[in-house]
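Notebook B, p. 112. Complex prediction, attempt 2.
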Amino acid sequence: MATTATNGNALKIQQFSSSEEFSHNFLKAKPGIWNWMTTVDHKKIGLMYLASVVFFFFVGGMLAITLRLELLSPAQNFMDADTYNRIFTLHGAVMVFLFIIPSIPAALGNFLLPMMIGAKDVAFPRLNLASFYIYSIGALFTLISTGLNPIDTGWTFYTPYSTSTGTAVIWMTLGVFVMGFSSILTGLNFIVTLHKLRAPGLSWGKLPLFCWSIYATSIIQVLATPVLAITLLLLIMERALGIGIFDPAMGGDPVLYQHFFWFYSHPAVYIMIVPAFGIISELIATFSKKTIFGYWPIALSSLAIAFIGSLVWGHHMFVAGQSELAVVVFSFLTFFVGIPTGIKILNWVATMYRGSILLASPMLYALYFLFLFTIGGVTGIMLGAIGVNVHLHDTYYVVAHFHYVMMGGTVFAFLGGLHFWWPKITGKMYNEFWAKVAGVILFFGFNLTFLPQFIMGSQGMPRRYYSYIEQFQSMHVYSTYGSWVLLLGFLIIGAYLLHSMFRGEKATSNPWNARSLDWMTSSPPDEHNFPYSPVVIHGPYDYHKPESEFLLGIAGSDHHEEITVGTETKVKQ
Amino acid sequence: MDYIARLLLPPQESTFAHEVDALFHFINFTSLILLVGITFAIIYFAIKYRRRSDEDTTPLITHNNTLEVTWTVIPLILILIVFAWGFSSYNTLRAVPDDAYEVYVRAYSFNWEFTYPNGVRSTNDLYVPANRPVKLVMRSSDVIHSFFVPDFRIKQDVIPNRYTQQWFQTKGPGSHVIFCTEYCGVGHSDMMGMVYALEEEEFNAWLEEEASKDIESMPLVEVGELVWRSEGCMGCHSVDGASGIGPTFQGLWMRERNFTDGTSAVADEDYIRESILQPRARVNVGYQNIMPTYSGILSDRQIEGIIEYIKELSE
Ligand SMILES: [Cu+2]
């Protein structure tokens, strides 16, 4: 037992042991559907999000499989243009709004953020539950839209097509509008949580990088999402009330819509990828058993990306008819996103240098990520170069590029994170052999699906075509075969994770010997996260310090007692 | 190298295609070096520093300012090069020569209509003089479309409330496919056309022949076929019985039509005329309400030509 001086007050610190068996496992506490639905426990809310995003990923994925099947041969196969258009729109909308935006922040973020900072919950637990219900209501609206008359505008809802089509655009945009609020509130909640609820001693410089990335993401969510809301509202007003804003037939300007839309949706790309960066930082440090290289460059580059990323929306519109000066300025700024992104990649690789590298499945996902995301990044540079962009814009090259970023990047990181924290979340281990097999299959299938899309894209194959000229067939065939391999990989993952849930071996509290606070409690965690009030003296990647020094808490405390220690309190050794 | 260029890019058929391609290859090449470097480092580290025992300890290396600066500055230089290069090729794409031959382009779902200086019009087939700068002045009459010719490396959105422009100069006679690359609805994938670059004399001869086609003295059936071919009907209506975006013209004459509002009618002269001038008034069951109106575009004689043509197709 040690005594520490804190601003003149004495704080007694005690060491706890990680092998303690706690009786208050959150999964067992307060069972029953009703208790789950009304829970304010961030872990349970995180799990409800997790179940939703996994479900929507499955839906979006099956839609993609159907699209790829239609594209197996040049002429119409088994669906007409109209059906194809609706399906590709739904695929995009489901994947973007229902899966990827909430995937890491709302599902894993909710579960982990409070644990990583040693808090009992997020700052506003009820608001957190409200966010989930708002998300559900938004999802319901999109479902209604799909039931009524599935939309065919593309997930971008470009005017004037979206104002003139006969499909249920209003319900869909209303759904996205509502989900935006969920995103804003979650972001707000996380920002306040990070500012106010850090455990004693957990200075900003000791924050796990996952928290930094969620912090940057939250800022974008809070600042950019309202613009999407405004845009969609204007679109709804135009369709419902005939107020001319975007439709030239009513005196509006369609390019204005594109500015509004991308003003949100470009930063949204970073809402989707920045949390993935956070996961990768955790994975690489943990499985290299080594202090992260360049903590501050990695942490701050997330913020830099959030900032620069807000200034480059015009690069989606190089050939849309905006002024040439705007084109040049947007191109110039776009390249600067590449710098912080490159810094991250190189710092991660440098972290592995002289580490003690364990190639467990989460680490393998992180390495796949590095490879795929680098391709996604450099092809982004290609698209930023205006002369080349004119040729590549709206071809399959762009489709391949963003799938390398969103799927090769975010989804692979998400999978890595899911495997990494699976023992913590469920208290069970999964089958490592099958996890490795599935990972290799996914990596192979992914490249088989999307590499050919780069080639046909630069050859000139336009996107959103349900039929195409014969010249492009061979590439389409590879791509469709690849989609089947991907499907196989995901089925295997589904199978062993389900198996693990029911039959899996029991997990220890810290199976990967990590150092951050989320591992300093039982698996699954206690109902209130920690049975003691954690105190932090080391950084989350201080692998040179013994693990026991990371299990510190305020002496004599247990979870029944409220401890009041100012969060600003510095704990000195 | 040549093989890779041919695998990745369409043939270079415009005067500036090589400039765009050079940058494309430069970025690919640089990226490849980067990717190989990173991949190699990862694999090397993963093998060399693999975990040997759970008791392994690792050195405390927190950061290295020299390294951070290096891998900020080198990419910075690279992106500035790429930006400047992209900018300069964009300038070429945008700087329309003064002596360019001008063609007006009207896009509508799902056709391209070209109007030449002497008043001749063609649909989906763009004829241009080879080896001479051609400027396209483009406008849409409904939603946004985008005019893309991969062989020329040109693309520009065509929007409803403003003219947009682009230009190209071919390296010789030839034919090149045009795609619509802004999603515009059911016919988007079929909104294709061809550019035919002809030698100067050949092109002038074509222009004259088209200009001299006098629909006033042509038999009505031929007028009808001409309209079908050149006004875009062809893109949606077949004449061989195949169903497309719209119903086929074959066997249409005097057939009973059923509409989405539950009514029905017989395809006579009045009905066909109405279908062309107010296509949205009654919509056939099984089809979408997307046929553009031709009111103000087709003359009475042209409409009568269509009627006669449809009659003939049903005999
Ligand atoms: Cu179009």
